[in-house]
Each structure stands twice: as structure tokens, then as C-alpha cells.
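Methods — Computational structure assignment.
A single polypeptide chain was analysed. Its primary sequence is given first, followed by the predicted tertiary structure written as C-alpha cells.
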Amino acid sequence: MFSSRFHWDLRPNHLARALEARRRSGAQILDLTQSNPTRAGLSYPPAEITGAFSDPRALVYEPAPSGLPAARDAVMGYYSAHGSVVDPSRIFVTASTSESYAWLFKLLADPGDEVLAPRPSYPLFEFLAQMESVRVTPYPLTYHDGWSIDIDALTAALTERTRAIILVNPNNPTGSFVRRGELEALLALCVQRGMALISDEVFADYTLEPDTECATSLAGVEGALTFCLSGLSKIAGMPQMKLGWIVIGGPSVLRAEAAERLELIADTYLSVGTQVQLALPTLLSAGENVRRQIAARTRQNLADLRKAAASHPSIQMLKAEGGWNAVLRVPRTRTEEEWCLDLLENASVLVQPGFFYDFESEAFLVLSLLTESQTFCEGVRRLLQRL
């Protein structure tokens, strides 16, 4: 009766069941997995945000498939403030980054085609691609005093049905940016094989320890057909507002063809509300302070974690250049799941195992740097004590 898209095992995993049991028992859990900025103790300007939705223009429906001019101008202003010139004609407003991916899979791939996505990374691409009848093939990120893309392995993974390469820049959870040399190699591959490059840049504003070789955004890249994704969820700490965007780059002919087809896809759905589009300039402005708070907290938590972990030689803190997460390599005397369950049951500390993000080996633990600092420091103290 139902579509074959729904082939996943949706039952709660062992860690989720253990967490629910601990909470039912009344235990106070130090949650070091917090990824929801609206629940992270940040200060938002409520009057400014709610006032942005009182625009009387929202009473009139003006369908604009690529987004209302005011919204696209606001996105253009965001990139201008970051040193990139992006014409509004290249911008498509969506309801979220997830919807952006869905549109791009519709644009680029037929059923049974494939896209390449990094591993480790956030486990979302397989779900989004499967909903569009597209397959995901992983390419590895390797760690040697820093993360890098295994270009040879990526190239070997390409087939005649590969339509796009996905970058998460910076990656979640590794925090690694694409290097300029890697970008040149990827652009050359895309041109040679007739593929597109999709750059997910939702965490790009949160630099931790980047270097001059990091390409923090692909906006303005013209060597191959590119799509840069971002939105309010991360850059303004407002996931509930449900607004993202796509910026098209590349050679003018390909860019125009892509825009024409995206316009048709967008016109089919018209998913983004008028209110949030009109509010976007104010939300981006209000989000600047939220973004500063997040940046300050993530950097401070990273520094505190590094200092605390320095006295534990059996624990390695992996280099992170951006984003909201930190990764610890811990002794393989237990599996990641066993470490996480032990920390939950005996220290009331919740962390994520590396296999949640498809790390190819053990044992890694992932901590959210977005966590309130007092909770984070106490959780790290207990974690290191337990380890």
C-alpha cells in the first residue's frame, strides 16, 4: 500500500531508550547534545522579532516563485556584508535547507541517479535523497592533524549516474572547511563529468580556528555549476522561522538554465510564507546579536574543553575549524555506545556516539558547543572523570 521510500527502522535506538528511562526516573541530565538555539539560553529581542510580522503587505498574496524582491534583496545584503556580490536573480528563497536539497535533487537527478555526500557528516542526506528516489554514495573525510577530503576515493566513487557532489562547509560534526586546493579539484571534476557542486554553508558564520587555506563560502565561484545553501536556522539562530535560500553560481549559460528550471519547481510548491519573507530583513538584523552570542559561546566552550582535555593523554580532541560541535577520540576499551550509556547512567551526561554521524571507526564522542557554558563545563568535568 505504501511507497518503498519508507524502508528505515524508525524504532528508538538503545541510547534513546536509556535516556527516556533516566528522565522518567527523575534524573537531571546534563545534555551536551543541545543543537536547538531557541533552547540554549540565548537572548533574543522579542519585540523586534514579533514586530517584524506586523507588515500590512502580508495581507496581500503576491506569488513569487523565486521569492519576494524584499526577501531576495535581504539575502543579497547578507552576502554583501560578507564580501560577496550576489545578484538577486541568482537567489531562490525556500522554506528550509532541507527543502533546498529536495528542489536541487529534483533539478539535477532522475530516479536512480546518485549524489556524493561526505562521511562522516550529519545523517540527513540519505533521507532527503531517498524521498526523491535518488541514491547517496559516501566519500570519505580523513583525519591527519586535521580533516581533509580524500579526493582519490571521491573520484573512484563517481559513476555515470553521479549528478552532484555535496559539501558541508564547515562539516557537521567535524567542523572542517573545504580547502582551496580541494575546491579546485572538485570544480575540475564537476566540469569534466558534467556535475554540480552543492555547498551547505549553514554553519559558515561560526568560525573557530580556520586558516588561510579554508574556503568559507562558494558564493561567487564561477568555474562550475554551484549551489550555496543557507538560512535563518543557523545564521540567525531561528529554526522556527522556516526560511532558507539557494544561491546559484557558475557559467552564465548553465546558471540561466538552472534558474529557469528552479523557477518551475518553486512555482509548483510556492511554499514560503509571505510574512516571513517580508520579515526577513528585520530577522537578519536581529539575528546578528544572536549570532555573536553563539560565536562567543562556541569559542569559549571549545577553549574550556581543550584546557580540560589537555590533562588526559588518553583522550584526543580533534581539530575543529567551524560549526557548533567538538569531537573527542576516546579509548577503544569500550564501544561508542557503551561509553555513551555509561556516561548517561553513571554520570548523568548525554553525548552522541560517532556512529550517529557515520564515523568509519571507533571510538568517537560528539559534543555540542552550543550548550550553555555552565552545563557544558560541568558535563565535560564529569565526562573526563568517568573516562
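Note: The domain at 54-286 is CATH 3.40.640.10 (Aspartate Aminotransferase; domain 2).
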